[in-house]
Design a protein that fits this description.
Elements lengths: L1 E11 L8 E6 L2 H13 L3 E7 L2 E17 L5 E17 L6 E6 L10 H18 L14 H6 L6 H9 L3 H30 L5 H4 L1
């Protein structure tokens, strides 16, 4: 069912998940107004992926948890957190920043992923984190029906895949998709590393050149 409210939209080149933290630097006057109103009213605004000249219709609302820094020229930094998924139905251009009537999205079932599937995904995440030598804190102790979001949020995964994950309406489907994607990423990274090492030997193994 469509909401009577108009949700303010913040198009960004990223995907926000429910429960995930997102620091933002607000510098454009129109978005300073938009986020300023959200702070004053303690209301949500929508973060939506804009990439390659296309703006997606499904996004995630955010609330401002803290204004972390203000600058003399009006810019400011905020810490936000994702709340709930939505689908934008019809754009409204009455203000400088975009707004839309929305419907909020819920999963079609309330079932978490199987324990074995969750553990396999965690193993793949740990392997990728080690391989990339990155820090990726995942809070999977919260809502087990959204563990896939918590696991994917801190990882440097393709925005298109994260958008796909955001739009899936079953935790089991999301966890399967995440597991398959992580396997693909790991295979690709291993292949890239092998090619890099081979290029360093000019196509010859150590035995070939001895």
């Amino acid at each position: 069912m469509a909401s009577d409210m108009l949700l303010s939209l913040f198009p960004l080149q990223l995907v926000l998940f429910p429960g995930a933290g997102l620091p933002l630097h607000i510098f454009e006057p129109r978005y300073r107004e938009m986020v300023g109103e959200a702070i004053e009213r303690q209301s949500e605004f929508g973060v939506i992926l804009a990439e390659g000249g296309k703006v997606c219709s499904v996004g995630c609302t955010a609330v401002v948890e803290e204004v972390t820094e203000r600058f003399d020229d009006g810019r400011f930094n905020v810490a936000t957190r994702g709340q709930r998924r939505f689908r934008a139905l019809e754009l409204n251009r009455d203000k400088e920043y975009p707004r839309a009537g929305v419907e909020f999205i819920q999963d079609l079932d309330d079932e978490p992923a199987d324990e074995s599937l969750l553990m396999r995904a965690q193993e793949l995440v740990a392997e990728l984190v080690m391989e990339l030598d990155i820090e990726a804190f995942m809070d999977v102790a919260g809502d087990e029906r959204q563990a896939s979001f918590a696991m994917a949020a801190p990882l440097p995964l393709d925005a298109a895949f994260k958008q796909q994950l955001l739009e899936l309406r079953s935790e089991k489907e999301r966890m399967i998709a995440l597991t398959e994607h992580l396997r693909t990423v790991l295979r690709r990274n291993k292949m890239t590393e092998r090619m890099r090492k081979l290029a360093g030997t000019n196509g010859h193994t150590r035995r070939d050149v001895e």
